[in-house]
What we know:
It is a single chain. This protein is of the alpha+beta class. It folds into three domains: 18-68; 86-337, Cysteine proteinases (Cathepsin B, Chain A); 352-430, no CATH class. It is 29% helix and 21% strand. The protein contains ten helices and 19 strands. It has helices at residues 5-36, 43-66, 83-90, 97-106, 146-163, 171-177, 190-200, 220-223, 241-248, 262-265, and strands at residues 71-73, 126-127, 232-236, 253-257, 267-272, 282-292, 295-301, 313-317, 333-337, 352-353, 359-360, 365-372, 375-382, 388-389, 395-397, 403-405, 410-414, 421-427, 429-430. The strands form five sheets. Strands 1, 2, 3, 4, 5, 6, 7, 8 and 9 form a nine-stranded mixed sheet that branches. It has a three-stranded antiparallel sheet with strand order 14-15-19, with no helix packed on it. A hairpin with a 2-residue loop joins strand 6 and strand 7 (295-301). Helix 1 crosses helix 2, helix 5 (146-163) packs across helix 6 and helix 5 packs across helix 7. It is flat and about 70 Å long. It starts with a helix and ends with a strand.
Amino acid sequence: MNWLWPFLHLILLFSQLPTYKSSSVSDLFDSWCKEYGKTYASEQEKAHRLKVFEENYEFVTRHNTRGNSSYTLGLNAFADLTNQEFKARYLGLSPSADDLVIRLNSRSVENEGPNLMKESDIPSSLDWRKKGAVTGVKDQGSCGACWSFSATGAVEGINQIVTGSLVSLSEQELIDCDKSYNDGCGGGLMDYAYEFIINNKGIDTEEDYPYRGRDGTCNRNKLKRRVVTIDSYTDIPSGNEKKLQQAVATQPISVGISGSDTSFQLYSGGIFTGPCSTSLDHAVLIVGYDSKDGTDYWIIKNSWGKYWGINGYMHMIRNTRNAEGVCGINTLASYPIKTSPNPPPSPSPGPTRCSLFTYCSSGETCCCAGRFLGICLSWKCCAAVDAVCCKDHRHCCPHDYPICDTERNLCLKRIGNSTLVEPLAKKSFSVS
């Protein structure tokens, strides 16, 4: 019977391989969770996320080991999401066929900006980040408002080019107040955002009207804070890549793309070549272009934070001789036009009014300290703008960490659609 032992040993070894693989991916998943601060509400949810993570791990490994691709994939912050979950949470461009037809037919190339660079003067490469016309990478979270980030990015760019001042502008104002055609976290179009800014005679800053990552009620007082203005906007003819490059050589440009493929979800570096759909569902900002080893590419600023792509950016192939471009990047491009100066600075905001006789200082939030029959009889002040007042009437939390944990004296925020919470680094504020 001794001759059976080698065969039994081999059978035992191979039977253990799947367990070894699962264990190694499990360890990798635990490390990934620590890196990205991920925790889950239950062991069942964690087990489900591990399974999704393993499927994405296999997808990444297959792509990267082929060795014939110009780009790489990675286990980024979206590696625990299925592609369907990812599409539902992080995309938000909503151009219907009718929208596109009306938009492209109503705005002609005759409306192009007065400073549009001549084709003969277009440089071989350009990066608006190096020219100081691009703000830092932002994170839309699970709010499908990519359209607002693309629009503000384009306005930020042309404002810096015209005035010399780089000002981060408020996506939340567009989400809350631009409701004629756009739908906040439910999706929208950049052209409608430009129209809103024009009709409102300006837009507020990110600092004054900060991002919350969810739909909210329009703060009418902030609408009067018209810090940056634009005069008009125009659309680049669909499929005209030469005209698109001419525009990018002049200023950062808003574009619609398809960002729903798994390879786009898990992109980590290199020149992205697809494959991907040309059905537009996401909006980004082209901030330049360059070439590497004979391959031309666009420099794209995304709004998924710095943990995606190349610190929040993507290099996407251009000059493919395909009119639509990879991921449809050549089909829905537009940019704001600015020739007029910005209005003078608004006067500093006055005290915050709580009631007829009670005020808090500028930049503070009124919190009710005592009610009777639904009427607040006593007010206190929280030293934070647009803060959330805790139910204990003694503490408050900043708007971006709106969940009060008064037992632990912490401010928390919800991550995605799960029950996951992330604590604020500092304690909750006391009202006084």
